[in-house]
Amino acid sequence: MQLNETHDPSLTSWVTSANAPDTDFPIQNLPFCVFRPRGCNQAFRGGVAIGNQILDLAALGDALDGAGGDAREAAGLAARDSLNALMTAGPQAWSALRLALSRLLRSDAPPRPHALVTQRDAEYAVPAHIGDYTDFYTSIHHATAVGKLFRPDSPLLPNYKWVPIGYHGRSSTIGVSGQTFARPHSQMRGPTDAEPSFGPCKRLDYEMEVGIFVGAGNEQGEAIPVAQAESHVFGLCLLNDWSARDVQAWEYQPLGPFLSKNFATTISPWIVTVEALAPYRAAWQRDASDPQPLPYLDYPELRSTGGLDIELEVLLQTERMRMEGEEPVRLAQSNFRHSYWTIAQLVAHHTVNGCALRPGDLFGSGTQSGPAAQEAGSLLELSAGGKQPLTLPNGEKRVFLEDGDRVVMRGWATGPGRPRIGFGEASGTVLPGR
């Protein structure tokens, strides 16, 4: 993805909140969502974040009459109650719309306040109809840390460094930030139990991930070449893959996660486009002693710009903290550039056997842990498998999540002379089991 005028760091907007240095949503970002004004029965429709406002794409009227046909058509697709049609349109349409919206929102353009809705006055829907959801396992640091808990002498399975590992999840329980869910019930068996029992899980966890929305898909039987894979990716969001660790330990062999993962997944409402992230490409590194990617997973730009420099953090607000007016506290911070596999490699591998992807399909990156202890993306790692409780600033302790806990995930990309490109937040709250 090449840089263009939409990435110019000097651009400012007539929406003054978009010019604040700490905003997630400057004019260089322009992420998409599906929303409506809170507390009404209006239809959901597409919007774009600008500062603390949403540009209502259904309220633009003739604002884009001077833009090209690709931009006008894409704006109509983006104004619908899901972004699937826009995702289907492909990179040329996405880029044309982004350019037209950038010009519409710049400081030298006529203000159009009638097309704005304040973000705090909006409610959000999952931004696309998600047909299929695949969760990957791309952090070698997470895989190693978790593997050591169960296989101290051989934490990584033999295939890990050769193939992007993933499993198919459940799209019906994916919810947008603000999601609440009941603590899941299932069958479990502890290491000293003679037989399994049934009840609410006791080792509930989060997983700090990046979500990847597929744009234009592929025909069944036609693999997407890795060098072209990112042209099939619409954009990225934040993703929390809630996990019942005690359920997972009992059920995951031989076919992998099932009820331990499919009860809830929370994503941020905003999809940051791949184009917006172009200035934040990062080198992708693979230890020389590790196997190098097979040819179908290798491409010319892999090592120079295959990664993305996206900071990720996870915060916790307990019920007591909320009652006492205390803000969430940070548990960990990591970066997407630590990923062992790139987005392009995930897309290429997913389709190499002929699997058809469709617009709106969602990938989870897998828990994004870094090499340092404070970069762990799950409580399973932070508590060393439940052996080392975390002490919060107010004196409360956590090994795994308790009822009433609210988990908040945030992400952003920045760099010298570049604006902050933020993802907003993905928050979810654990309710007592039913």
Any overview of this molecule?
The protein has 434 residues and is of the alpha+beta class. It folds into 2 domains: 5-125, Roll (SH3 type barrels), CATH 2.30.30; 133-431, Fumarylacetoacetase-like, C-terminal domain (Fumarylacetoacetate hydrolase, domain 2). 16% of the residues lie in helices and 27% in strands. It is built from 9 helices and 26 strands. It has helices at 69-78, 84-89, 91-105, 140-150, 245-251, 302-305, 319-323, 343-351, 379-382; strands at residues 32-37, 45-50, 53-56, 116-118, 122-125, 133-136, 166-168, 174-176, 179-182, 185-188, 197-200, 204-205, 208-214, 233-240, 243-244, 265-267, 272-273, 281-282, 307-308, 311-317, 329-335, 362-364, 390-391, 397-398, 406-415, 418-431. The strands form 7 sheets. Strands 6, 7, 8, 13, 14, 16, 17 and 22 form an 8-stranded mixed beta sheet that branches. The protein has a 5-stranded antiparallel beta sheet with strand order 4-3-2-1-5, with no helix packed on it. Helix 1 packs across helix 3. The chain is globular and about 70 Å long.
List the defining traits of the structure above.
globular, 2 domains, 16% helix, alpha+beta, SH3 type barrels, Fumarylacetoacetate hydrolase, domain 2, 434 residues, 5-stranded antiparallel beta sheet
Q: TL;DR of this structure?
A:
With 434 residues, this protein is of the alpha+beta class. The chain contains nine helices and 26 strands.
Reconstruct the topology from this structure:
Elements: E1 32-37, E2 45-50, E3 53-56, H1 69-78, H2 84-89, H3 91-105, E4 116-118, E5 122-125, E6 133-136, H4 140-150, E7 166-168, E8 174-176, E9 179-182, E10 185-188, E11 197-200, E12 204-205, E13 208-214, E14 233-240, E15 243-244, H5 245-251, E16 265-267, E17 272-273, E18 281-282, H6 302-305, E19 307-308, E20 311-317, H7 319-323, E21 329-335, H8 343-351, E22 362-364, H9 379-382, E23 390-391, E24 397-398, E25 406-415, E26 418-431
